[in-house]
Fold these 2 entries.
Entry 1:
Amino acid sequence: MTQATCETIRQRLSALIDGDLTPGERRELEEHLSGCAACEAETRAMRETSEALRNLPRAEPPPDLIARIERAIDGTGSRRARGRSRIQRHAVAMILVVGILVGIIRVIPHGPGLFGPRRPPLPAATPTPRERAEGTTAEEVAPIPDQDRAASRTRAGAPAKTPPVSAQSSAGKRDAVPAPPSGREIAMAEVEARGDLAKKKNKGALTAELGEMGAATAGAGTAAPPGSPAIDLLRHPRPEPAWAESIRRLIQDRPEELARAWKSLSTKERSEVLAAWYRSAMAPGIAGDLEAAMEKARDPDLKSMLHALREFTP
Amino acid sequence: MTKKDAGPALAAVPEVPGGVLVDQDAPLVARAKRGDREAFSRLVERHHRRVFGTAHHMLGDREAAADMTQDTFLAAWRSLGGFEERARFSTWITKIAMNRCRNALRAFAAARTGPLLTDPPADPARGPEAAVGDREVAAHLERALGQIDPGHREILILREIDGLSYDEMAEILDLEAGTVKSRLHRARAALREKLRGVWPP
């Protein structure tokens, strides 16, 4: 009989645990173990780990889970996408929460001190989440990147403030779509939807934190390569069909550019893009376009971006 | 895609001589397929705990797992007509749940928001009856499970926690039985590496 090496023996431990070795293999293994303390110890550890996994207690479901399932099923007639949207809502909430944390962390290094005076915020470069959601800045009302690339470039020099009310009305008329809730409202709703988070933080603190998200973005002043329509679109997500349509066109016409822009975004910015995408009431058929683009995509950044968008397509 | 020649059935899968799986859910499934909501509710009652537990192990978050469970049953209800009953209902629904968990985790990876594993390892929901030592072990294991590749986590959950056979795992993961074995081997090795120096003591 050939002497089995430690390597061979360890390759068989998984099958040993499952009782999937032939009698011959098993005999060979046992012979080896009787003379090899290291393999013997490893076998014991593997067995114990397997055993412990089997005994791992299961989490109990929330008491209302059955009722929730039943409601979801019975509600299917009126709201088709309801089931899928629940997990997506959750995903949005999770991403927003991560975004909040990132936002808070970002505030710290940009405070005064250590590295000299705080960098002045770029004029109107980065609207606060509220402004963004309501479409207050001029270029956001402008339509599709191709023809408006030049206009977008001038953005950084544009006057900073437009009162939310008037901007909202102009943005609102562009598409016959009711004004979406502000980013902050969405974020609050999402966060509140998560009971466990609500337990950890009171609403007041969350409101303050969400307010800081905007401040953090402005303070960070993100060294954006300016001028690319892809960057502009991604940096200023709007939960509106027109914005989603612009993204869709870029996916079809200049996917690499979009992927590069996506890659340059921070985690929080990506979260905001996905949240806006999910809420944008985009035209039907976009999911199919995304899947077609995913088929063609070779670039890993492009793939990961398309995948994320697909997941957040209701 | 049945894999009947795929080696020993490990879990107690009831089988009749023809190799046809006996599914105790089959009568309920048949009724539910004809649109019987009551029958489907019975299936929900029978399987929601297991689906929730699996999703919880995959996602590490109770709320996400609850959403995922709800989604899974909703999807099952909608696509019941296409369920050909080559596999048991429990296998089929686990497959739906696993696909969804996998997609959710991929989306998070794509958005680079980090893992969804938010629950503290010692979950109070599992009750005080667990001894302190057991809880420590569970905490080590859950942490390690959360750190390995989701594909490895998935197959370990199916095999060790759900106690499925190679055949059932092959069906759920859309893999050949041979691939199931090799992936399971790699998954166990990966988990063992994460635990090395931590547990067993």
Entry 2:
Amino acid sequence: MEPESQVGDAYLVARARDGYLDAYEMLVQRHSANAYRVALQLCGNHHDAQDIAQEALVAAWQNLPRFRGDASFATWLYRIVTRRALNKISRGPVADQADLLEDFTDAVAGPAEQTERNLAVDAVTDALAALPFPQRTVVVLHHFEGLSYADVAEVTGSSVPAVRSNLFRARRTLGKKLGEWR
Amino acid sequence: MDEPSAEPPAGPLLLDAVTLACGAEVDPLLEQVADGRAADLNAHQRDCVHCQAAIAEFAALWEPVAETAASQVAAPPGLTAAVMSQIRVLVRDVWYTLQTTELGTIRIAARIVAALARDSARMVPGVRVALGRSTHSRLAALAETATFGHRYPQAAVGVLGRTAVVDLAVAVTYGDSAHAVARDIQQHVIGTLRELVGLQTVVVNVKIDDILPGEADR
């Protein structure tokens, strides 16, 4: 295990607030993939996802003094990413829904298996994109990122019952869409 | 005339139902499957064909979602560099060492000096993590403005001409003499910066602020 991986996010956040940019760089290295992945699943295309992740990571650094540490850095970053994704989506249609596929390529799978998997990913992407943003967000955070209901509520600024209710509706809609695809 | 069928809904139609024929609610079943607990049947489900059929159907419907969620998505190459580059512009971290020779001038960015100092410190036995900063006090003020109040408690200095002051925050191995490790870091880093950057005067401030368990303790 790399020694750097043994220091917690709270330590790195404290050092970043003291002006150690390389402490923040370690945080970026740890969390950039999560930020990008959530942005990708929320907005559905690579270019917007990269913009959102980059903007969110810079905004997180700018707002470190306001970060009280009640939630984890990861949860706090998820909140910034989801808000930025919502802003981006609200501003207009996304650039290109199709290029989500390129981010799910799997070098291990054979061509036929890969094509089938890409079709499945495509179907999930379309089904996700058809969900209202609050439902899409809870599905991505809970089922894709593995956050608990309480953490999803923290990220989205809602309650656990509201998260659960959104997930119930979202799962039924996703199930129906994917049933049509099958 | 045939009686209307009393069969429960099947397939995706299940998703329009509130309950199954056995009275079990659909949403908790779907939640059970989506959360990866399809095999964790309760006492009722173990004896109920309706629940078992619904769980099997939901598992098939949910499989593409689970597959997509399990796919590895890496951050685009260059994302970290782009973020840090943007931040460095915000703090205007553009100070350089300056050496004038008969051939011209040599300037080395202060952040490079800090990175060299950090990497040099990491080579000292007992050092587990080292972080370096090189912000000049004026830069600290700029950064404070840019970040709405970042604090630099020890007025980090940085570089001026052929003089450098570097702050290092270090985590050491539990059980090692923190004082001895700090002295080793100072000597090693000063030697490195003199040799690699050509600095004449180097001051290395070491702050040991975390202790990590040794290799044998993990």
